[in-house]
Amino acid sequence: MSRRVCVIGGGSSGLTSIKSCLDEGLEPTCFESSDDIGGLWRFKENPEADRASIYHSVIINTSKEMMCFSDFPIPAHFPNYMHNSLIMDYFRMYAEHFQLTKHIRFQIRVLQVKPRPDFSRSGQWDVETENKKGEKEKHIFDAVMICIGHHCHPNLPLHDFPGIDTFKGQYFHSRDYKTAEEWRGKRVVVIGIGNSGGDIAVELSRVTKQVFLSTRRGAWILNRVGQQGVPIDFELNRRVLNMAKSVLPFGLVCRLRENKINQRFNHSLYSLQPKHRLFSQHPTVNDELPNRILSGTVQVKPNIRRLRGSSIEFDDGTVEDNIDLVVFATGYNFSFPFLPSNMLPVSGNKASLYKYMFPPGLERPTLAVIGLVQPLGAIMPISEMQARWATRVFKGLNKLPSMDCMLKDIKHKEETIAKRA
User: Fold this and answer.
1) Segment holding 23, helix H or strand E
2) How far apart are CA 31 and CA 155, in angstroms?
3) What CA–CA distance (Å, rounded) separates 147 from 15?
4) Spatial distance between the Cα atoms of 31 and 8, rounded to a whole number of angstroms
5) Is the full-model pTM beyond 0.90?
6) What is the CA angle 162-272-169, rounded to 5?
7) Backbone phi, then psi, for 21, in 5-degree steps?
8) Hey, is 408 helix, strand or coil?
């Protein structure tokens, strides 16, 4: 008898989860709340609620060689770093090749996922869904794979910015930014120096009168092009470097690489020297930002102290007047609103999961979260490996350790990350 698996989300993690289910002889049903696959990578002019939205010019920060699924290489004629439209083309080819789309039910929202009364014996789940007409439906599944990712709810921390209610210009989250042209000749502040903040600041600086890039902690800025013209992630994922990471002190490995990065672009000269080590957080990949800072079209500023009318005061005491727009490139929060509140609590935008996948307190290991990681590289291969492992656990081919062992592993990882922050 085939075991039925509920897959929530039809983005990159959802697609590879469907395929892994099929590979293991399981019967997947994927519920996707929108009308298409692709998740984060599908450009839409009008953002949907509770969903990340990219801007028109987005190019991926990992090379095609490092982001592709293991059994379906990206076509050779595609560029190393792909525009979001080409990433969507790849996902469509992947879905068509493995006949995944027929297992996806579009425009279906998952309302509730809860253990059945006999869960301790069966490991089954009651799942309630709703279609776009408001019609609800109940299902029974043997396992659940949650593939909604990190980018769910825009983080707009207005309470951290005194005087925002007096601001006379416009402000919005980066998810609402699409193109630069409408801001031609304006003065703009971008808050946050992650990949979105860096990209948006650079793009706006081509048409605006001035862009100010506000950052609390700075960032390590990497170029897409590494030594000898190959993608930078070829260089960062060499076996010798990974071996060095496993045997040398973390601080030493970081310092060696940081020194090399600063030879090309001395971060302290640009007020970008971060407080964290290179391999402890996501670096910002941006080829143009150093040039834009050097040319003055982007000016780096510290955190905002307060806003007043059309003026903004920064922590260093400087004030910039006549600001027309503030873009909050302040990331996203995630949650699991369809789960019982005590099953998988989220605190500080983190969830306690064994190997970032399995809730340690479940009596039966029939629920897995796929793709809820922020690696120093592409998520697609990691989601694929997670999905392959999860489906084998569902079938009983792989066993999880005891709850105590899982909790110890979670605590160890949290302590290690805290030390490196």
Assistant:
1) helix 12-23
2) 25
3) 9
4) 5
5) yes
6) 35
7) -60, -45
8) helix
Side chain identity at 90, as an amino acid letter? Y
- What's the CA gap between 237 and 249, in Å, rounded? 18
- Dist. CA 133–CA 107, nearest whole Å: 10
Q: At what angle do helices 380-395 and 12-23 cross, to 10 degrees?
A: 40
Order of strands across the sheet with 311-314?
304-308, 311-314, 319-320
Mean pLDDT (whole number) for 70-99: 97
Cα–Cα distance measured from residue 215 to residue 349, given in angstroms and rounded to the nearest whole number: 20
Exposed e or buried b for every residue in 156-177, given b needs 16+ CB within 10 A? beeeebeebeebebebebbbeb
> Cβ–Cβ contacts within 10 Å for residue 68, how many?
20
Q: How far is CA 135 from CA 111, 131, 132, 329, in A?
A: 11, 5, 7, 36
pLDDT tens per residue, range 43-69: 888 877 777 788 899 999 999 999 999
Structure tokens at 421: 């922050």
Closest CA to 55 of 212, 224, 185, 174: 174
Query: What does the pLDDT look like over 328-375, one tens digit per residue?
Result: 999 988 889 999 988 888 887 889 999 999 999 899 999 999 999 887
Strand residues in 250-397 grouped as ranges (E): 284-285, 298-301, 304-308, 311-314, 319-320, 325-328, 332-333, 346-347, 350-351, 367-369
Element (H, E) at 146: strand 143-146
Parallel, antiparallel or unpaired: strands 325-328 and 170-173: parallel
Backbone torsions φ then ψ of 191, nearest 5 degrees: -105, 120
